[in-house]
Design goal:
The complex is a heterodimer of chains A (253) and B (329). Chain A has 253 residues and is mostly helical. Helices cover 84% and strands 0% of the residues of chain A. Chain A starts with a helix and ends with a helix. Chain B folds into two domains: 2-220 and 303-319, Rossmann fold, CATH 3.40.50; 225-294, Alpha-Beta Plaits (2-Layer Sandwich). In chain B, strands 6-7-8-3-9-10 form a six-stranded mixed sheet, with helices on both faces. Chain B has a four-stranded antiparallel sheet with strand order 2-1-4-5. In chain B, strands 12-13-11-14 form a four-stranded antiparallel sheet. Classes of the chains: A mainly alpha (253), B alpha/beta (329). Chains A and B meet through helix 1, helix 4 and helix 11 of A and helix 2 and helix 3 of B.
Chain lengths: 253, 329
């Protein structure tokens, strides 16, 4: 546990001592803000019309949900930037030799790196809470569905990170790791698009595979164990395969 | 303290380390000598648990590096060929991180980091980023890193590479001062380094151990004959013929392409010091003696000799009965 924390702390520090963390957070917060503004603007206009007709609106369902769904796509673009250097850079610079010859297990190193990356991701999400805070100041959104949304984002991000870690562990070139991760994440997103046109059987399969599809329910404020298990098993699979990849690297030398 | 038995490492069809065996006793400094690609780094990487061996076993401080890697690593300090530094960390941050993952108790961490920095003379760079250090400082921070957890065994892969002469001397002194408390293996391709720091030498070539001995014995045994470099001021005289007449001298050759330089290589029988006789002869002939010195055998020559010696079998167990590994054994 101590070792995991030490490595996670080191990873997090290396993100924040280079411009990387700030670029990533900025790159995420900016489009997030644009989406937030557009949906909120539409919501306010619609709200005025609805008020004349005497209807009611739900800020959770009509603003937060859509903003976060769009955010999940930006996250997909950003995650490769977080994970690409995790292993690739250590292998290129030789610092992996320090980690692998220290009295820590491979799993501790992997979890340390995973939680380090997750730490940066959490920092990203924390920035978005500023926007949400605006909603609380001027309106009264419900906080319970919001918790579900952020839990969903956290799980989805974790799944991306663990896959990114795996891809980074297979190369010593961080650019390669970044590009491959990006393509894989993109595939995991667009595979869901086939769901509507494919047959009922393939439709179910492709919808199940799509990493962003599982976020839908979370964004509506629903915590479904089906999706929680999907994300958790994807995280476990990614970390497990990373362990295998590191181990096989060791044997091949 | 360190025991290596029949270690073999193959990468696909390439055999990097071939049936290497040796022992290092507690407190000893063992030099690992070999040309690039001889298998030094691979052997060290196996000992530090970085990679497993294809065959054979190795124990460090009583723990098998494969079966009990964590226990073995806890007792090993390792300086890889390229110091494993994180460029965006300061020296202190870096050493603090290493101390954490090496399992140094948090109460001792600050004092250990300070002590290691003082010992390796990097304390003046404590708040400098590792990426901005000169090669010499990087090497020494790497060394500091390996000492942090006060390991019983130190494995240093070319610890003096990239240092300037003054730093080389400091580093050698440091390594010598560490012996006794620590058991040290260091690799190098510089022969004087071995003779100045190590008690025993393992010469490795093409993955095989070709010789194990003390540096003195090794140089003496490998030399075979003594060679002197002589330069005299004796224009127009047949110096070579006169020097060759001295008892014990077996061969005299011009050391230079230009015959008028007066420089000669004088070879004599082994153990037969002919320096006095040469000097006397030169003085009595009325020539001017400009230079007279024994010629040291360079590593290249020793290598050529060791690696072409056939059969190499006798070499390994001639002097050192503790070693069973030798080439062809």
């Amino acid at each position: 546990m101590r070792n995991i924390l030490a490595i996670a702390h080191k990873e997090l520090r290396s993100y924040f001592s280079s411009p990387m963390a700030y670029i990533i957070i900025g790159f995420f917060a900016l489009p997030f803000g644009v989406f937030f503004y557009l949906y909120l603007d539409a919501f306010v206009r619609q709200g005025m019309q609805m008020a004349e007709m005497g209807g009611s609106m739900n800020v959770n369902q009509q603003v937060i949900r859509y903003v976060l769904q769009n955010a999940s796509v930006i996250i997909l673009f950003i995650m490769p930037m977080i994970t690409m250097r995790t292993y690739a850079e250590e292998k290129r610079s030789g610092t992996i030799e320090l980690l692998l010859t220290s009295p820590v297990t491979d799993l501790e190193i992997i979890l340390g790196k995973f939680f380090g990356a997750l730490g940066l991701y959490v920092a990203m999400l924390l920035v978005t809470l500023l926007y949400i805070a605006i909603l609380f100041v001027y309106g009264n959104p419900e906080w319970r569905p919001l918790v579900a949304c952020y839990l969903g984002l956290l799980l989805m991000g974790g799944a991306f990170l663990s896959l990114g870690l795996l891809i980074s562990s297979t190369t010593n070139n961080q650019i390669v790791a970044g590009i491959v991760s990006f393509i894989v994440f993109l595939m995991l997103w667009i595979v869901g698009w086939f769901a509507d046109t494919a047959g009922p059987m393939m439709g179910t399969i492709t919808r199940y595979l799509s990493i962003t599809e599982h976020f839908d329910d979370f964004s509506k404020g629903i915590i479904d164990t089906k999706h929680v298990i999907y994300y958790l098993s994807l995280i476990t699979l990614g970390l497990f395969l990373t362990a295998k990849s590191v181990d096989s690297e060791r044997w091949r030398g | 303290m360190i025991e290596v038995q029949h270690l073999t490492k193959r990468y696909g069809r390439v055999t990097a380390v071939d049936d290497v065996s040796f022992r290092v006793e507690r407190g000893e400094i063992l030099g690992f000598l070999g040309p690039n690609g001889a298998g030094k780094t691979t052997t060290m990487r196996i000992l530090t648990g970085y990679m497993p061996a294809t065959e054979g076993r190795a124990t460090v401080a009583g723990f098998d590096v494969f079966d009990k890697p964590i226990e073995a690593k806890r007792r090993t300090g390792y300086l890889p060929e390229t110091p494993p530094l994180y460029p965006d960390m300061t020296v202190r941050e870096y050493l603090d991180f290493v101390a954490r993952i090496k399992g140094v108790p948090s109460s001792e961490r600050v004092s250990r980091v300070d002590a290691a920095m003082r010992r390796t003379h990097v304390d003046d760079m404590a708040s400098r980023h590792c990426g901005k250090l000169s090669k010499g400082y990087r090497q020494r921070v790497g060394l500091a890193q390996s000492l942090l957890h006060n390991p019983e065994v130190l494995i240093l892969d070319e610890p003096t590479a990239g240092l300037d002469p003054k730093q080389i001397i400091e580093t050698r002194d440091l390594i010598r001062s560490l012996a006794g408390d620590h058991t040290i293996i260091l690799s190098t391709h510089i022969l004087p380094e071995v003779s100045q720091t190590c008690q025993r030498v393992v010469i490795i070539n093409k993955g095989r151990v070709v010789a194990v001995d003390t540096p003195e014995n090794l140089t003496a045994r490998l030399r075979g004959a003594e060679t002197m470099y002589v330069q005299v001021d004796a224009a127009g005289q047949d110096v070579a013929a006169i020097l060759a007449r001295i008892p014990g001298v077996t061969r005299v050759e011009a050391a230079d392409q230009r015959h008028d330089s007066g420089a000669y290589e004088v070879e004599s029988e082994r153990g037969h010091d002919v320096r006095r006789d040469i000097a006397r002869q030169i003085v009595s002939s009325g020539w001017g003696l400009l230079e007279l010195r024994p010629m040291r055998m360079s590593l290249e020559e020793i290598f050529l000799q060791v690696t072409t010696e056939e059969p190499a079998e006798g070499t390994a167990d001639q002097q050192d009965t503790r070693v069973q590994g030798g080439a062809g054994a």
